[in-house]
Amino acid sequence: MPKKVDSKEILEKESNKISSKGKNTSTKKSEKKSGSASLATPKTKKTVPPKSEIEVKKKNTSKKTSGKSSTKKVSSSKSAKGKKAAKEKSLEELKKAVARNILNKKIEETTKLNVIEKNKKEELKSATSKIENRANEETVIEKIKNFIAKIAAMQEEATNEEIDKTAGKEKKKITKKKEVKKQQYSLEYYDLVYRYNETIVKILAQTPKRLFVYWDVSDDDRQKYIQTFGEDFFEKTYPVLLVYNEDRKYVKEVAVNDFANSWYIDVQDPKNKYTIQLGRKFRQVPHDINMEKVREENIILKTDYLPLANSNKLEAPNDHVLLESLPRYITFRNVKTNEEVVKSIGDFKDAFGNNYSIDGFYNEQYKDEISDRMFDMSNPSSGVNSSMFK
User: What is the CA radius of gyration of the chain?
Assistant: First the structure.
C-alpha cells in the first residue's frame, strides 16, 4: 500500500529550497561587489519564511545595492575634484617659486652692479686725488725752484757789485795795464783703428840703422790662400820679412810669427834705400799643390816661398854730422838746468874731416853728463810680440 503524502511536509521542503537558493544568490552578489572571497560560515538551519518575507528581503537587498553604488559614485566624484584642486595648488606653488627665483636673480645682479659702480667711483676718486697731489707737488717744486733762482740772482748781483767795486779800486791804483789774452786749447781724442783689412806692408825709419815695419793681410786674401793650399795653410807656413838693400844689392831674411803685425829690424848701412817684402814660407817643400788653381788666382809660388805684398821704398837717414856747414863754436844748453855752454868743434873738424860720428861727438862733448847706457839702442820689440792678429 502506498504511503500517504502530507501536504504540509511538501510545503516545508519547497520553502527550504527557495530559502537556500535566495541565500546563495545573495552571497554571490555580495562577493562580486566587494571583490573579496566569501568566508565559509557554518550552515544553520533556519525556518523557511513565507513568500512575503522573501520578497521583502529581496527589496531590502536591492535598496542596499543601489545605496552602495550611489555612495561609490559620490566618492569617486569627490576624489576627482580633490585631484584637480591639488594639481592647481601645485601649479600655483611652482609659479610662485619661479617668480621668487627670478626676483632673487634680479636682486643679485643689481647688487653686483651697485658694487661695481661703487668700486669705479672709488677708483676715480683715488685717481683724481693722485692727480691733485701731483699737481700740488709740481706747484710746490716750481715755487721752490723760483725761490732758489731768485736767491741765485741776488747772489750774482751781490758778487757783481763786489767785483765792480774791486775793479774800480784796481783801476784807480793801476792806470796802465796790459791785456793778456788766454789761449784756449781744444781737447781732441783720436781712436786709432787696429787694422784696415788690407794686404799692405809699410816701412818707417826709427834711426839711421833701425827700421820699423808694420803689415796686414786682408780677410779675402786669407780665404783665397786657404782655398788654394788647404785649410791648414797657416799651420804649415810661417811669415817672413825680406829686407832688400838696393844700394848694396843684398837681401836679409827676418822670420816673424803669426801673432805680430809689426817688427823692428836692425840694418848695417845708413843712408841706403830699402824695400821689404812680406811673404810666407812652407815648413816643408809642398808636393800636392793644384797649380791650375794657383794660376787662376794669380798667385806667385817660388818652390817653398810665397810672396804676399811689397812695401814702399825708404832711404835711411845719415848717421854722421856734416861739420863743414857748422861754425867753429857751438852753444849747448842743458835742458834740466837751462845753463848754456859754448864749445869749440874746430879741432874735431880739422882732425876728422867733414864727417864725424854722432856717438863719438856726444861722448867727447858730454863726458860728465852722459851715462853708460844712455845710447843703448837695443831693439825693444824684435823677438817679442809687438801686437797680434785678431
Answer: 71
User: What cell was used for 300?
Assistant: 806667385
Phi, psi for 115 (deg, rounded to 5): -65, -45
Which among 275, 241, 292 is positioned nearest to 301, based on CA atoms?
292
Mean pLDDT by 10 residues, the chain (390 residues): 51 62 51 44 47 57 57 65 82 87 88 88 85 83 87 85 76 59 59 80 93 94 90 92 94 92 92 94 84 82 88 88 67 85 69 58 68 55 43
* Cα dihedral value 103, 106, 111, 117, nearest 10: -160
**Nearest C-alpha neighbor of 255 from the set 235, 224, 280:** 280
What pLDDT sits at residue 213?
95
Residue 369 sits at φ, ψ, to 5 deg, of: -85, -35
Pairing mode of beta strands 329-333, 200-207:
unpaired
Q: To the nearest 10°, the Cα dihedral for 31, 37, 41, 45?
A: 30
Instruction: Please name every residue paired with 203 in a beta bridge, in sequence order, or none if there are none.
Output: 213
* CA 209/CA 271 separation, integer angstroms: 9
**DSSP string spanning 181-240?**
PPPP---------S--S--EEEEEEEETTEEEEEEE--HHHHHHHHHHH-TTTTTSEEEE
The three cell numbers of residue 229 are: 793650399
DSSP label of 269: -
Q: Which residue has the cell 522573501?
A: 54
Distances (CA, A) of 245 to 202, 204, 248, 274: 15, 15, 6, 5
Q: Taking the domain 200-315, which CATH number applies?
A: 2.60.40.10
Q: Residue 96: how many CB atoms within 10 A of its CB?
A: 10
3-class secondary-structure state, position 320: strand
Helices (H), the chain: 7-34, 51-173, 219-229, 291-296, 346-352, 358-365
Count the Cβ atoms, other than its own, within 10 Å of residue 230: 15
What pLDDT, on the 0 to 100 scale, is given for residue 242?
A: 95
